[in-house]
Amino acid sequence: MLQNELEECLIRCITDHQTNIYRLAYSYVRNTEDALDIVQESIHRALVSAESLKNPDAIKNWLFRIVVNLSLDFLRKHKRIRIVDDETLESYSSGTADDYPDLDLKRALEELPMKYRSIVILRYFEDMKIEEVAEVLQENVNTIKTRLYQALRLLRIQLNDDSSEEVQ
Amino acid sequence: MDNPIEQLKKGYQDIPIPEELERVVEQAIKRRKGKAAASK
After folding, report:
1. Is the same domain home to A69 and A9?
2. Which of B7, B11, B21 is nearest residue A22 as measured by Cβ atoms?
3. Alpha-carbon Rg of chain A, whole angstroms?
4. The CA-based dihedral angle spanning residues B13, A162, A120, A107, taken in that order and rounded to the nearest 10 degrees
5. Mind telling me how many Å the CA of B21 is from chain A's nearest CA?
6. Domain's final residue, options A77, A103, A125
7. Domain tally for chain A?
8. Which domain holds residue A154?
9. A2 in B contact zone (CB under 8 Å)
10. Burial classification of residue B40, based on how many CB atoms lie within 10 Å of its CB (0-12 exposed, 13-18 middle, 19 or more buried)
């Protein structure tokens, strides 16, 4: 693909997915101004480095990877990433649910360590396939499946549809 | 009641989209196009 065509393709992808990009950034930084800054920086970075894109069919995954990486950089810079050890994580999953299931679930997702939360967001909220999530997060498919299983366990969610088979 | 993932997804989809988003996206694209044209 010619450089101009590639750039046009990328611009179309950015425009078509601008709300997804924003929500993805917002889900990390939880602040409108910061999320908009990340959107702006992501577009800039994507357009500047478009020539490094090897597979134009994977343009959306590549763009989402830039958004995720910039969001994580932002959180690291502002020290908003919490390190949670395994023991603490285990205590999340063994506790009993309170009387406000919706609130409890939302809080559980917010408290989920980033490596798990990213997977839940991309797989279920952005409706990506496991393989696409792996591509965005640059991990292998089995790692994503394992982490997704652990994330659902921490959220105390049991799926009873086809989704449960993919994490087995 | 919706399944838990659907509840969480709904919360995600309800994240409000600011009016400035479109402008921010347009400006970021224009700025890049301007720089690319200037460098030719």
Report:
1. yes
2. B21
3. 17
4. 80
5. 7
6. A77
7. 2
8. 86-166
9. no
10. exposed
